[in-house]
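Usage example:
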Amino acid sequence: MTPSEQNDSRRTSGWMGIQRGHQARPGEWLAEKFIFLVSLSAILMVLLIFLFVAREALPVFLGQTDTALVKKPIPPDDLDKLSPAKLEAYLEITPEQFAKMTKANLHDLMEMKVEEQDDVPEKFRNDPDAHINTTEWKYLVQPHQWKGYDKPEYIWQPVGEIKKFNIIPLVVGTLKVTLIGLLFAVPLAVGAAIYVSQLARPRFREFLKPAIELLSGIPSVVVGFFALLVMATVLQSLFHYQTRLNAFVAGLALGFAVIPVIFSIAEDALTSVPRTYTQAALALGASRWQTAWQIVLPAALPGVFAAAVLGFGRAIGETMIVLMVCSASVMSWSVFDSARSITTTIAAEMAEAVSGGPHYRILFMLGALLFAATFISNMIGDLVIHRFKNKLEGKK
Amino acid sequence: MNTLTPPEYLPEPPSSSPTTRHFRAEKFDFWSFFFSGLTGLATLFIIGILVTILLNIIVNGWSAISWHFVSTIPKKDFFDANTTGVLPMIVGTSFRVIVMTIFVIPVGVITAIYLTEYAANTSNVTRIIRAAVNNLAGVPSIVFGLFGLGFFINFVGKHMDALLHNPTAVWGQPALIWASLTLAVMTLPVVIVATEESLKAIPPGLREASLALGATKLETILKIVLPQALPGIMTGGILAVSRAAGEVAPILFTGVAYYMASLPQHLSDQFMDLGYHVFVLSTQSPNIEQTRPILYATVLVLLILTFALNIVAILIRARVRKKLRALG
Amino acid sequence: MAETLIPKPATSAASGAAAKTATPLIDIDKVSLYYGASKALKSISLKLEEKVVTAFIGPSGCGKSTLLRCLNRMNDLIDNVRIEGSMRIGGHNIYDPNVDVIELRKRVGMVFQKSNPFPKSIYENVAYGLRLHGVKSKADLDARIEESLTASALWDEVKDRLHSSALGLSGGQQQRLCIARAIAIKPEILLMDEPASALDPIATSRVEDLILDLKKEFTIVIVTHNMQQAARISDQTAFFYIGELVEYGATQKIFTNPAQKRTEDYVSGRFG
Ligand SMILES: Nc1ncnc2c1ncn2[C@@H]1O[C@H](COP(=O)(O)OP(=O)(O)O)[C@@H](O)[C@H]1O
Ligand SMILES: [Mg+2]
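Running the assembly step on the lines above writes:
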């Protein structure tokens, strides 16, 4: 049958042929469902990240971790009085292990715990610090006067006999480095965004924009390397400070990494201000910079603000640069002291932390904290941009 | 009579609006000069930083790079400038990036297809997907590392070992596959956004033409839309690859090894990595002055890998954007 | 009879033939269409005969394209569209849930206002639709492509460069290629939405000649802004005004002796 005959035969059958419905194309239907399901993967991933970072950190939040060296052991005969969850926490075993154990096994384990306590060296028995569970929230965020110190202090010292997990030095370190980075990056990036979007000639712009965006293509480990080998030396000879590697160097290097982020968003916001605004001003005889400064910048201000917020989110999450440039966890607000950020701590200490131990859990807790902080700053940034764009469109 | 300028005998009015001020000082406007100069300097400074970093690395790295260097598997002491090489790192980085691409491109492209071709723009599902993509793009890379450890290794891997009755941990430990999957999750937004951008650049008229000829939606997507979107999808892939190739934080706990005597063979192997090697060389060298040349050479290799890809991506993207603007 | 939704293979040929003679090919009955909350079509009723050229005229924004796009359900692609009333083609309600839209569109072809050739070769542009319809062999494809390019008066101009890009053609040629593409798959009905609005006078007259030619084989519905064009090529004319059908009748009557004042004002160029 030739195609045209086929066509003719169809024609004589009238318009019945169109009545077949979706059942006629199961492939199409399946493909659509499949595409929809796959597209949910982004949501799934965000949920999984949240779930699994939080899962590993959960014992810290639930108060199930205990680092006290001297504990009052539970008499093995009290076995029946304890709930399974409590037993698991006390014996430091997983639910799967628990399920496999007989009562006799559990009893033995509890006796071992009692014996363990007998083995605790004499020097700890009288040491008040050894009785403390340092993973309690009180010790995580409040200063404490440890033995040998003459005043309460914030200390992060996850190795040693008494493990100290105060997270404040890390938070301070993160904020310090981040703020230095932003103080450096925001003016530069916004200035460049104004120049590129408003003042530069179009031919120039075509080249400047991708050039600045190229900066984001440099891996952060390379920026860190550059800061460590070149910048640190140059800056020290310029400013004559003591510690060669400090928060100042780390902050500047961090600035390099966030400049392209801030620039891109700010430039986008500035160019999305409708031409009609600027043309009206220019027609009135305002110069280019006056238009930029008095018309465009105020109109784009929310976008520029969002750029800074998103830059902040990027900066507190940056790891390798700070890890390479400075990493001592001293508690200090001084710019020229070293600083250790949250990201750095996780990166540097996860390898030595015992899987499932308190240190491991607290590192995950820090990760959850970081996730929450960037989540919030991204939400704010996106919301502001969204409103800004809507407003511009509404005005048009 | 010129009504624009007031008679000379009148006192000068206070320069109220900048417009009038500008009108008067036509010859030299200090503020205009200052402002343009300042923002121009900021731009110049940023470009300067970029050029300085690149030149510094190229000049120092070029002299230290050699065929021997890129083709040698180093001994345990890889700080020795004469015998060291970066072959396992090049192989490791490429391997993990290729495996990542296999996972991220299909998922990212299909998601973008759903968002632009199927979903109603106003539906709640679309809004949530977009929010999730945005959010995923902002998650710090170290958190991806934690996620890889907590989910892929401690959950998926451990359960696989249990199911397969492996006597020792095979999957429940850092491995190439887990590092690649972690990176795939991390670069998913890159691929989605780039693909979406290129899908949106395709004139709706083409889709209508195809549908009006009696093509189904799927046929239209496969035969008309996707071929057109190919450059954009490539850009997305390249951007993802170049982003992932240089990332170190997400692989720290999920698969990278400080040293391995042989190249990675299986998905369950650990691997050496260029970026991580840069980190190791610059922070753990016993003698940084002696390590400096190989450090520069390693950085140069890494940059060539990531940067060359980036430039290609930027060029393709510029063309796609131009097309988009021409249509708008 | 037309309510029968389940195909009955034994009687379908007979009932189809019966439907063809007993009822008009296209029967639009009290169709209203909403884009979200705004009503773009207000209870339109219209019957179109087979192998007749019908022109839709009216000031811009009055819903001509909207009604046209209802006929092959291209409006399904737009979010938030709601349609009331019934629209029958060959006796079958095309908005019935059982209707296969894909099959419908294969039989109700469309040419758009803005020519939209695929960024492929001229040959592939026409071959695309044919392949969708299962024409596979090279010989068949070649024959059908030559046939439709000839029918759209493009063959002589492009026969030497069938495999070069369609985007290299002039505007008028591109539009004729789009027509060739649409008629290659032999639809029964051809919908044309201002097919000549973007063309120069010479290209326009070629397209008009083409339409007069195609009339022998197809039922054509054409939207046009150009009164002379409507008068030249159409047998029937429908005049729309802000979503309403004001007048419908033989073209000659509409242009010489319209029943409605508004129609007269419009066709004589007093507004629009
Ligand atoms: N996709 C759409 N969404 C919302 N309103 C639309 C859409 N398309 C057309 N309209 C509106 O419907 C009305 C009729 O449009 P249209 O059919 O294109 O008019 P015509 O083709 O007669 O110029 C207009 O008021 C137009 O604004
Ligand atoms: Mg129209």
